């Protein structure tokens, strides 16, 4: 090798040190963090505290705020459970409740109510068609009615239709033609592995499961319905009232809608 191309040894060493430091630089940051956090224990404690806050403390705070809002309207007529049922039977206000429930991560409760109403309409439709088949003289004609088409129609457009002749007997056995829709409702909302499982008591779940397996009746979801309504009444309804408190036009609109669907 010629004298002109020979590189000093110290330059080679410095060059290699620069390359090595550029490679180890990112890893050095993690090593420093590891040392400062005492082997990562501090980071683990911070993450654990956040999980406790998000899973326990935050829901308690939300529950407290909901009860506080509920108590604020306690003496007003619009805060009664009877008035809330009128809200639940008003499709435009149900839409408002659904939007609130989405933000509160409890939309499954509103979906439960809507689908429960659909089941009631299915039973009502069955009674109408069964009476019609009896008048013709052949009750077996009930099996020819398109219950699936009626069911899909009700799912697409939630509405409150008149059911003046609806003789609701909760102990009435679920008709064979309607049973698939009750099973679907159970698998969606009652089963703990369902896609929209609601938070009801274990005793209620056991009762429904037992009745589903032995003697299913059209009223077997009524206890769960009462729990869900109470839950929505205590959680998302106060938020709706607070939303319309300072909006006089919206308050008048709500009164108009309720009176319209209450007639």
TrEMBL record:
Keywords: Membrane, Transmembrane, Transmembrane helix. The keyword Membrane applies. This is RGS domain-containing protein. Pfam families: RGS (PF00615). Residues 83-242 form the RGS domain. It comes from the Eukaryota. The chain crosses the membrane at residues 41-61. The keyword Transmembrane applies. InterPro entries: RGS (IPR016137), RGS_sf (IPR036305), RGS_subdomain_2 (IPR044926).
